Amino acid sequence: MAVWEDIEIAPVMLINSEEPVYADRAIDTWKEKLRQSFPELDINVVTSQNYTPQLLAQVFSPSLFSEPRLAIVPDLEKASKLAGAEIAAYLEAIPPDCFLILRHNSTGKKLNVNGKKIFTQAAAQGFPIVEIKKVKYPKDKVKAVIAEGTARKRIITNDAAAALVDALGSDLRELLAATDQLLADVSGKITAANVHTYFSGRIEASGFNVADQVVNGNIEEAIRLSRHALATGTAPGQIVAALAVKFRQMAQVIGMQNSHIGVKINLASWQIRQAQNSQRYWKEAALAKAIQEIAQADADVKGQSRDPGYALERAILAIGRARANAK
Predict the structure, then answer these.
(1) I need a labelling partner for 37 at 20 to 30 A (CA). Which of 56, 197, 246, 319 fits?
(2) Where are the beta strands (DSSP E) in the chain?
């Protein structure tokens, strides 16, 4: 499989993507390459869901001026038996000056039987296929942000990327758009200070910033930030999830340090360093108590409590007491 930027234009190009923003970029890149070679390119979108007999034949039929034609199928996961059969026929013999881009949106699902046949046939015939996995974890989103800078020959520090993920990390499209804004508006190296300047309101109200204050023992500030976060639309569950991530990372690092068999953990180096700095101020008993409180808060905000906001504050205060009493 190849990265979409490196794909040489072929009569048929395929993409199987779990990340819509990257699938969009791949198709935009291919369209631009085709336009550079064929300025008069006629572009048509042909959906599998509404496919009718001979629809591709209509798109690929020569026009009065015989300009090159591109058909984009954006939803191959919905391909009917009819659509699958007619698309497969064009893999065998696509007309001259005609191009076909096939997109399957995985969204965690396997290829349907019609889509699978098309991908298998395309691979056998040597057509280029790009596969893009979902960007799930914070460390992978940090890499995605840094890669945006690298692609433009710019430097985005790890701390800046991590701060941006903390503020906007739930949606990759929004995260990359914010990165593009920073790259456009800030000259030179982008640091965490730049991120805080542009997105301070979002960062201050983020669940991870609340969690940082709890970890550092600044309980009054954590309560203030959590109330601000709730008032500006952050769900209590998001803050509890951020607490869980921070304390789980500290527990993982302690386990790694205490292990005599070289236990490996799935954390980026910057996350390990951050957790090591934080866990120095926590006794193991206090950390265990904090994790218990977070588990209870998770259950509370998911329905066990009538007041999720109160349940969140109760947990933050209990965690603070556990830290203070363990000194």
Answers:
(1) 56
(2) 12-17, 42-45, 69-73, 98-105, 129-132
Residue 139: predicted pLDDT:
87
Q: Which two tokens stand for residue 272?
A: 């390990």
Between CA 211 and CA 319 the distance in angstroms is 11
The radius of gyration of the chain's CA atoms, rounded to the nearest angstrom, is 25
Q: What is the mean pLDDT of each run of 10 residues along the chain (327 residues)?
A: 78 92 92 92 87 91 82 90 90 92 78 80 91 89 93 92 79 85 88 80 66 91 86 80 88 73 62 79 89 92 85 94 81
- Gap between the Cα atoms of 176 and 116, Å rounded: 31
Tallying the residues shown for the chain, one arrives at 327
Q: Domain coordinates of the chain in residue numbers?
A: 4-132, 138-204, 207-325
- Cα–Cα–Cα angle for 111, 116, 121, rounded to 5 degrees: 155
CATH 1.10.8.60 is the classification of domain 138-204: yes
Q: Which CATH class is domain 4-132?
A: alpha beta
Is residue 20 a contact partner of residue 134, using CB atoms and an 8 Å limit? no
Q: Residues 198, 202, 207, 208: what is their CA dihedral angle, to the nearest 10 degrees?
A: 0
3-state secondary structure of 152: coil
Q: How far apart are CA 169 and CA 228, in angstroms?
A: 19
Strand, helix or coil at 131?
Answer: strand
Q: Using an 8 Å Cβ cutoff, are 74 and 45 in contact?
A: yes
Give the list of residues 6+ apart from residue 282 with CB closer than 8 angstroms, or none. 215, 250, 290, 323, 326
Q: What is the CATH number of domain 207-325?
A: 1.20.272.10
| DSSP state for residue 53 in the 8-state scheme | T
pTM to 2 decimal places: 0.63
